[in-house]
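In response to the reviewer comment on reproducibility (Comment 2.3), we provide here a single inverse folding case reported in full, input and output, so that an independent group could reproduce the run without further information from us. The structure tokens appear first.
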């Protein structure tokens, strides 16, 4: 069975991408990075998802990007609330070069274990406008992976796969439901309460809520909180 390193954040996008890789016959090696995010509850969510998805291995890696600052997601300023999702400019929740760093880590692990695929759940339709979620970035990193590794030089390509790029959030949710993803295990909130309850007002909460509404499904994470 071929192996794939999956960047597993604990959110519904990465969970769906991982489930899709599993359906296609890839053994999942899940990578979760504690990068100093204020919403560290997502790491526990990733742990639950890795177990539910039957990951062959789950690595939780510490790379403290909070030491650099530059993002409200690492405690540098307040998480914006109730702002238009189509607001101009890149929001303060953008973490400088985050996906570049995470993909570089995934590439290193993939080469070490002989994996030939890296899976990332980025989406370029219903998202917050981060530059490192765009198809152009994914294509550029895929090219870099072939140049920067011994595997690539020797013809054993490690390909980057972002299967959700062109899907809306509702489309991702429908796909995940079809794949049997338990969205009750996921978390999306950027500013949850200490017990993990979503704020309901940050950009990520609002995009998630809109996605479930458009998909015509109830968010099981909210249902679990009401139970």
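Designed residues, in position order:
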């Amino acid at each position: 069975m071929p192996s794939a390193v999956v960047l597993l954040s604990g959110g519904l996008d990465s969970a769906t991408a991982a489930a899709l890789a599993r359906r296609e016959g890839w053994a999942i090696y899940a990578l979760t990075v504690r990068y100093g995010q204020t919403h560290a509850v997502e790491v526990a969510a990733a742990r639950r998802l890795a177990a539910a998805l039957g990951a062959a291995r789950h690595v939780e890696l510490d790379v403290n990007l909070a030491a650099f600052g530059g993002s409200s997601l690492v405690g540098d300023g307040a998480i914006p609330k109730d702002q238009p999702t189509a607001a101009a400019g890149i929001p303060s929740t953008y973490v400088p070069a985050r996906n570049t760093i995470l993909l570089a880590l995934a590439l290193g692990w993939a080469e070490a274990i002989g994996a030939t695929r890296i899976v990332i759940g980025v989406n370029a339709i219903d998202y917050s406008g981060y530059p490192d979620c765009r198809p152009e970035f994914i294509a550029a990193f895929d090219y870099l992976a072939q140049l920067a590794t011994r595997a690539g030089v020797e013809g054993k390509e490690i390909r980057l796969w972002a299967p959700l790029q062109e899907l809306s959030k509702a489309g991702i949710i429908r796909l995940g439901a079809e794949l049997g993803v338990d969205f009750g295990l996921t978390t999306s909130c950027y500013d949850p309460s200490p017990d993990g309850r979503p704020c309901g007002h940050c950009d990520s909460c609002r995009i998630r809520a809109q996605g479930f509404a458009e998909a015509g499904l109830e968010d099981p994470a909210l249902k679990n909180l009401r139970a």
